[in-house]
């Protein structure tokens, strides 16, 4: 899978993309992540990518030309399944969306800043807008990192245990059940005996029961699905 991320702050991705699962996925060659500095597509000597908005008002707007130049060049070299803009008014990111994106071959993720991007980019270039929640961040980089992580970990060959992602919260619209590890008895707090029984059928039934119970208590809205 190829993920091209357009940003004016590529250095913000160094931490999350150089550690843990995403680092290993890149080392295995399962995913290729390209950080593209939008300023390289600016048309003036100052590498400016923002300007005042027409009609007045506070806040700068990311200019249409640098973004269009960047996306046009990328599209001349690759076919993309989606061109995604991280936006608070986009579709809320869910596990089902991450599952679908993980089957793609090539995607572009555009990180906005300031007051947003010129609307002409949204109308004529963007194919999908994604939000990670009903709040506003300083820019789209953190949201793009969240989206990338949620997608990459689902690609076959990324996780050592291929079944791990299938049992994550939200995969079946349920929260995950409680999990335990050693020691069995910690200060009188013991692991449920069923988990030591070796009876896979009973253990799976217990986990489903606990997942349903936890979902009803903490996220009853998911039960409606």
CATH class term of the largest domain = Alpha Beta
Assembly category: single chain
The tally of helices reads 8
Q: Structurally, how many domains make up the residues?
A: 2
Give the N-to-C terminal Cα separation: 30 Å
Q: Give the strand order of the largest sheet, numbering strands 1, 2, ... along the chain.
A: 2-1-6-5-7
- The class by helix and strand makeup works out as alpha/beta
* CATH topology group of the largest domain: Alpha/beta knot
Mean pLDDT, to the nearest integer, reads 94
N-to-C order of helices and strands:
EHHEEEHEHEHEHEEHH
Number of strands: 9
Biggest beta sheet attributes = 5 strands, parallel
CATH superfamily of the largest domain: SPOUT methyltransferase, trefoil knot domain
Give me the CATH architecture of the largest domain, please. 3-Layer(aba) Sandwich
The helical percent reads 25-40%
| Alpha-carbon Rg, integer | 22 Å
Shape: elongated
Q: Unreliable runs, pLDDT <50, ≥5 residues?
A: none
The amount of beta strand, in percent, is 15-25%
């Amino acid at each position: 899978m190829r993920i091209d991320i357009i940003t004016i702050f590529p250095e913000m991705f160094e931490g999350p993309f150089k550690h843990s699962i995403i680092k290993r996925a890149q080392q295995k060659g399962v995913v290729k992540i390209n950080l593209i500095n939008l300023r390289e597509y600016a048309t003036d000597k100052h590498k400016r990518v923002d300007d005042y908005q027409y009609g007045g008002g506070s806040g700068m707007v990311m200019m249409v030309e640098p973004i269009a130049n960047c996306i046009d060049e990328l599209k001349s070299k690759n076919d993309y399944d989606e061109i995604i803009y991280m936006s608070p008014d986009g579709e809320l990111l869910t596990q089902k969306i991450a599952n679908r994106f993980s089957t793609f071959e090539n995607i572009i993720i555009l990180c906005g800043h300031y007051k947003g991007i010129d609307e002409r980019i949204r109308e004529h270039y963007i194919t999908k807008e994604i939000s990670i929640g009903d709040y506003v961040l300083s820019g789209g980089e953190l949201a793009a990192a969240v989206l990338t992580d949620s997608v990459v970990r689902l690609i076959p060959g990324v996780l050592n245990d291929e079944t791990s992602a299938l049992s994550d919260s939200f995969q079946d619209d349920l929260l995950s059940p409680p999990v335990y590890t050693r020691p069995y008895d910690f200060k009188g707090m013991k692991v449920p005996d069923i988990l030591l029984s070796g009876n896979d059928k009973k253990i799976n039934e217990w986990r489903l029961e606990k997942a349903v119970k936890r979902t009803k208590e903490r996220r009853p809205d998911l039960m409606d699905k």
